[in-house]
Fold:
Amino acid sequence: MKLVARYGGANIPIEVQREGSGYAVTIDDRTMHVDLVSAGPALKSLRLDDGRQYLLAHHQHGDQHEVSFGETTVHLELVDPLTLKRKRVEDESGAGATITALMPGRVVRLFVAAGDRVEKGTPLLILEAMKMENEVQSPREGVVKTVHVEAGQTVDNGAELIEVE
Structure:
């Protein structure tokens, strides 16, 4: 699974892959092999491949994460790359009314139809891309003018998905 950690004004690429009973975690170009075990509702035990072990307190609120270990507390946001790219495109375009595919994929599910009223952030559809299901949300309040796709349909990068006016 590919993620982007937003921390201290920087976007840090992270990739997490299941590896036996643990995980291979790649941050930038450095890969660590770790075991993570739940030790309670918010407590986790993290063991690195070099034998070091840490007790972490982890609290999550949406994409926002607070991780405490020892005397240190880190606040960061974890987002998938597609969400980050969509936000950047919306910011640059002023959140136009036509939602397009940011990468090739397959429409898994539609949540709206033409004529539906939507708020900013309302889920419109699920697009499967890069082996991940990504929820595409309305960039603004309005009414769905046109749905250009159907569930099960594959789309190319840049394909028009839904228009909101």
In short: Residues 81-164 form a domain with the OB fold (Dihydrolipoamide Acetyltransferase, E2P) fold (CATH 2.40.50.100). The chain has two domains: 2-79, 81-164. The longest helix spans residues 81-93. The longest strand covers residues 10-19.
